[in-house]
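Q: I have 306 residues here and want to know how they pack in 3D. Can you give me a structure?
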Amino acid sequence: MSFDARLVTGAGVLAAVTEAGNFARAAEILGLTPSGVSRAVARLEARIGVRLFDRSPRSVTLTEEGRRFHAQIMPLLAGIEEAAADAAGAAVVVNGRLRVSVDPWFARMVLAPRLPRFMARHPQLSVDLACSNYREEMMTGVDVAVRFGPPDIASLITRKLFETPVLTCAAPSYLAQHGEPRTPHDLAHHECLLFRDPQTGRPFPWEFQRRGEVIEAKIAGRLVMDDPSAAVAACAAGQGVFQCLGMGLGPWLASGRLVQILPDWAEERYPLYAYHPSRHLPPAKVRAFLDFVQEISREEQSAPSF
């Protein structure tokens, strides 16, 4: 297979247009004229035989085919940049822009409070952080993604970072008014805060595990949420019982705003995985981020709440 330098150039132009949002701003980034950028995109579209952008006078947006192509080429372009840094003897320098898609619970409760430490370690690196529960097209335009739950995307490389306990909690004010459940079956008589599974659109079932025994509790509640941070806040305000991930919950438990209930039935563990698309050695900035996430995950594991 022969190397097509024009295809690589066109891919770089496509990435710049996608990031900039129109040909004029992409031209400024690349040091080209807007007409030169437009011609490069047209040549790329002709080369691969699909329309990559929907064009309007004010902006250009990726078509469905364009989004798929963009998701596939970004790790390849990152690999080229990494190879260039390697050749220049700068492979150990973590620089450039890192695009990350992270589960909101992990981002808010664990990662964000520790980000200053990561940024201080790598002063030549900038980070573009997006928060999402969803897995569909989670790698579009990003270098690495972090999600809770078992991996289910065979085309991506995964790295298991951590397993967090699943805890069931309530506010002292709620327990004072309604009493504390003694068994998982008691939850049928309590107000439960339900959390919507982003993959199915339905509330997650509540499982309880103890010495190999698994019980799926019968639960009901009037409040369904899709943001775990908001659900924890509602739980702390006394709205009801909530089952959530233990990672990041330490400050709530230590302060007494939340109380763990049914601790003897809390043997379930839920994994945290990182995803990246390349089957080769990921860029230095991705390796640095993955190492940092694993480091702070170990810190959470050693926290008193575990």
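Q: Anything worth noting?
A: The mean pLDDT is 83. The longest strand covers residues 157-170.
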